[in-house]
Design a protein that fits this description.
About 30% of the residues lie in helices and about 20% in strands. By secondary structure, the chain is of the alpha/beta class. Strand 19 and strand 20 (about 420) form a beta hairpin. Bound molecules: guanosine-5'-diphosphate, 6-O-phosphoryl inosine monophosphate and magnesium ion.
């Protein structure tokens, strides 16, 4: 098996980036396959903080190859910013970083529509990166791909049509002045000149990597409950965030997939609108937010916080086919006298072990909790044996409920603050 996957099991920000940074030591190639600059993956190595929106976190290791697959949306400004940041820190990326030329581009009108929609309060609380609108154009077969930038006449034709459509929408809905497609075209051509060394047919690259027995790691963005099909629709993002999205968004066949690492926080967070059955709106929620520094890596928004939700994890573990669980931020629960875990829900008197399918049902859900004893952590624990008894009980309980081993536990944001079991 040549490829493994890291996936978020909750509503995003499960600390996937830091886990990818850790585990990427064992891989040769790290791949983003969906989403775009809505992601914010934080990695801390030797007190230096990196926040990646588009680049795979594995690029921090100088001997690794990073790939942005066909399913990812490219935000030109953010991509250039990140390339230049990483090149300043770690040296040239040419030869070890590639973007698939099939990837679609987020255009200025996508971001504008996202901004206008969110400002009108009709949105889902998006990151305002234009994601839904760029994917809409992609699925309408109206998107602009990197490969379209190779031929100015072809690009002009496609962009003129796409701009006309988008201008009509933002004009009619918001009275917004139209975007000039010629200005956008000229900017895109300059952009293409800047990223040209990195643009490639990455399917051909994957084929040769697999023949050379290189090991590939997929870095998921967002989380399972934000998946366009299987999340809390319509309060979701617009891509396939689950493990099946990795073959779809990269062109690597599913038969190559081996392990699937499911990353979850020791509690739950969500940013943006939408159902959150175990949300804590009082003091305990505040305690977790401050202790866990739960503020968005992309937007800086305070994240909503709550107890661990086993129906969500049971469901996520199933739809992703998780083989190894990764529990992060256990240290954040340290100091609480009691810790609760939702083991199932009640809906109209019936017991539910999985989340409901309809958004309307969430309003009537009653989570059923068990209470566990709290514990104190220092953040310097490096083996499971070193954890306090009550912390061990917490981990073991979750493992028994989900019937999947918790192989990794993080007790702080730095690369070394991780327990491997
Ligand atoms: P991602 O989007 O899934 O990569 O996660 P984010 O980077 O958005 O959010 C995770 C946040 O938690 C970041 O600020 C990390 O530095 C931080 N973090 C990661 N692991 C730990 C941990 O074990 N303990 C604590 N206290 N913070 C952590
Ligand atoms: P990472 O990869 C947490 C949420 C937004 C909003 C919804 C739709 O860092 O885990 P979008 O901008 O995608 O159209 O917003 O999805 N969202 C995230 N929440 N972490 C993320 O990424 C997210 N990316 C999008 O807050 O509710
Ligand atoms: Mg994040």
């Amino acid at each position: 098996m040549g490829a493994d996957i890291v996936i978020g099991l909750q509503w995003g920000d499960e600390a996937k980036g830091r886990f990818v940074d850790y585990i990427s030591e064992n891989y040769d190639v790290i791949v983003r396959f969906q989403g775009g600059a809505n992601a914010g993956h934080t990695v801390i190595v030797q007190d230096k903080k990196y926040i990646f929106h588009l680049l795979p976190s594995g690029l921090i290791r100088k001997d690794k190859i990073g790939i942005i697959g066909a399913g990812v949306l490219i935000d030109p400004d953010i991509l250039l910013e990140e390339i230049s940041f990483i090149e300043k820190e770690l040296g040239p990326l040419e030869g070890r970083f590639f973007i698939d030329e099939r990837a679609n581009i987020v255009l200025p009108y996508h971001k504008e529509e996202d901004f206008l929609e969110e400002s009108s309060k009709k949105g889902v609380g998006s990151t305002r990166k234009g994601i839904a609108y760029a994917y809409r154009d992609l699925y309408m077969r109206m998107g602009i791909r990197l490969s379209d930038l190779k031929d100015v006449n072809w690009l002009s034709d496609r962009l003129k049509t796409a701009a006309e459509f988008n201008n009509q929408i933002i004009g009619a809905r918001y009275g917004h002045v139209p975007f000039d497609w010629k200005v956008m075209r000229d900017e895109l051509l300059i952009f293409f000149g800047q990223i040209r060394p990195y643009v490639a047919d990455t399917v051909a690259l994957f084929h040769s990597y697999l023949e050379e027995n290189k090991k590939i790691l997929f870095e998921g963005a967002q989380g399972t409950m934000l998946d366009i099909f299987f999340g809390t629709y319509p309060f979701v993002t617009s891509s396939h965030t689950i493990s099946s999205g990795a073959p779809v968004g990269s062109g690597i066949p599913p038969t190559c997939i081996g392990r699937i690492y499911g990353v979850f926080k020791a509690y739950t967070t969500r940013v943006g609108k939408g159902p959150f059955p175990t949300e804590l709106t009082g003091e305990e929620g505040k305690y977790i937010r401050e202790k866990g520094n739960e503020y968005g890596a992309t937007t800086g928004r305070p994240r909503r916080c709550g107890w661990l939700d086993l129906p969500v994890l049971r469901y996520s573990a199933f739809v992703n086919g998780v083989t190894d669980l990764v529990m992060t931020k256990l240290d954040v629960l340290s100091g609480l006298e009691k810790i609760k875990v939702a083991v199932h829900y009640k809906l109209d008197g019936k017991k539910l072990r999985f989340p409901p399918t309809s958004i309307l049902d969430y309003e009537r859900l009653e989570p059923h909790y068990i209470e566990m004893e709290g514990f104190e952590l220092e953040g310097n624990e490096r083996s499971f044996q070193e954890l306090p008894e009550n912390a061990k009980k917490y981990v073991n309980f979750i493992e028994e409920e989900l019937k999947i081993p918790v192989k990794y536990i993080s007790v702080g944001p730095r690369r070394d603050q991780l327990i491997v079991r």
